[in-house]
Amino acid sequence: MDLRLAATKITKRYGRTTVLDGVDLRVHAGEVLAIIGANGCGKSTLLRICAGLASPDSGHVRVHGALGYCPQQGGTAEFLTPDEHFVLVGAGRGESRGRARSAGRAAAAGLDWAGAGAAGISRHLSGGTRQKLNLVLAGLGEPDVLLLDEPYQGFDNGSYLDFWQQVWRWRAAGKAVVVVTHLLSELSRADTVLDLTPRSVR
Amino acid sequence: MKTLTVAEMAVREISRRRGVLILLALLPLAFYFSRRDEAYWQSVRFVCLGIGWTLSTAALFAGNAARGMEPRLRLSGYATHQLYLGRLMALWAVGLALATPYFLLMRFDLDNLRYGAVALILVVTVAVAAPFGLALSALLPRELEGMLVLLTVVAMQMMLNPDGTAARLLPFWFSREIGQYAIEHDAGPEHVERGLAHAAVTLAVFFAVLAVSAGVRLRRRSHLATV
After folding, report:
1. Radius of gyration over every alpha carbon of chain A, rounded to an integer in angstroms
2. Which residue from B minimizes the CA distance to A76?
3. Cβ contact (<8 Å) for B225 and A61?
4. Which of A49, A108, A163, B125 is surrounded by the most beta carbons within 10 Å?
5. SS3 for B91?
6. From the CB of residue A82, how many other CB atoms can be counted at a distance below 10 Å?
């Protein structure tokens, strides 16, 4: 399988606290990797470093292809509708308005959210629905590598299962998917697991 | 094209903050009528300061609201300059829409003004206020801090002796210079030249702050190589 994402010897410190100490990560096309670990162990930080949104103190990241990123919070504009989000993000990927809208609506329907095209501004969406929007935006434009930071917060059980169906569809399409999670019961859904919990507390 | 898409969405976002927009649109009116009867010549300058404050505030909030979305848009293929230029274009459009009724108000409510100069002050105020608010949002990401700075700047602009050096360092000093030409018929065009020169330098400074801060915040990190 083709290597899509390689993070090598990533070290990150906040003051005197080292949250990531020489972490390596490899994800191939058609592979799902789950990042687990205790609160504050650097899961989100590692994802942000892989996305190029934060700098490590040392180490480097190599990405083959386009990146899609779903942050744990934020990532949407409160006063825009889902359709406008699709157009805005799609334009960045070079997609026409119509194509971006239809792709966004179809992806939303796959997450049991059929009414995305008729929904109002995102500040009036529930937390779970807004997170679905966040996830749909990460996948717009068919990026090769998807970085998902606990994207299912606020999902009901059905949507949660739909989320994993979507992850497997991405895997089947040859995409590399990284999911930050704290749900240890779901590790069987991933191909590879990276545990960031420090050895001293395991 | 991408810049225009950002501008369009920014206009949509701003136009949906209706309650805030109404309050902001009425604030220059309060400034105007505060001096309308006893010193109408000051009301011209005050309405410009009101619009400057209003638009800077709108820009401050728009800049802060965009922070959560911009990293995602960078990853989606936008260049940094497309993001801040698009937002700036949107704010300029909103500012001109805000300033037009005030120009008409002064055109029909006040006599014996050089109306072309009045229009010029309004346009230049809009041009400077938008990057001022965006630059502030880049330097002071907390809205309360930014608001306090805006309040301080406008209050000082009103209170300081406009002939003093300190007043010239404030961003809306040009409104006094061009305003003098608009109101006093014996004032020469050198006032307009000084005012425009001040506005050009101010605009360049704010634009540079905006471009550099956005460039740093949304830069491609050196540890990441995309093949």
Report:
1. 17
2. B69
3. yes
4. B125
5. helix
6. 28
Bridge partners (DSSP) of residue A12 are: A20
Do A94 and B77 make contact, defined as CB atoms within 8 angstroms? yes
B49 token code pair: 């300061």
Q: CB B69 to CB A77 under 8 A?
A: yes
Interface of B with A (CB under 8 A): 1-2, 5-6, 9, 12-14, 16-17, 65-66, 68-69, 71-73, 75-78, 220-227
Q: How far is A88 from chain B (nearest CA, A)?
A: 7
Q: What is the ipTM of this complex?
A: 0.87
With contact defined as beta carbons under 8 Å apart, do B196 and B174 qualify? yes
Q: Do B72 and A60 lie within an 8 Å CB cutoff?
A: no
What pLDDT score does A199 carry? 66
Task: Give me the residue label for tokens 């940094």.
Answer: B80
Q: Are B223 and A55 in contact (CB under 8 A)?
A: yes
User: From CA B112, how far away is CA B86, in angstroms rounded?
Assistant: 38
Distance in angstroms (rounded) separating the CA atoms of residues B118 and B102: 10
Whether the Cβ atoms of residue B107 and residue B116 lie closer than 8 Å to each other: no
Q: How much is the pLDDT for B194?
A: 92
Chain B residues with beta carbon closer than 8 angstroms to that of A103: none
β-pairing verdict for A58-63 and B224-226? parallel
**CA B128, CA A23: separation in Å to the nearest integer?**
47
Q: Say how far apart CA B113 and CA B196 lie, in whole Å.
A: 19
Please report residues of A whose CB lies closer than 8 A to that of B13: 77-80
CB neighbourhood size of B31 (10 A): 24
Contact A75 B78 (CB under 8 A): no
**Contact residues, chain A, for B75 at CB < 8 Å:** 51-53, 67-69
In the predicted model, is pLDDT for residue A202 greater than 60?
A: no
Instruction: Identify each DSSP E strand in B80-126 by its residue range.
Output: none
Average pLDDT over residues A103-114: 89
SS3 state at A20: strand
Render A135-159 in DSSP notation, one character per residue: HHHHHTT--SEEEEESTTTT--HHH
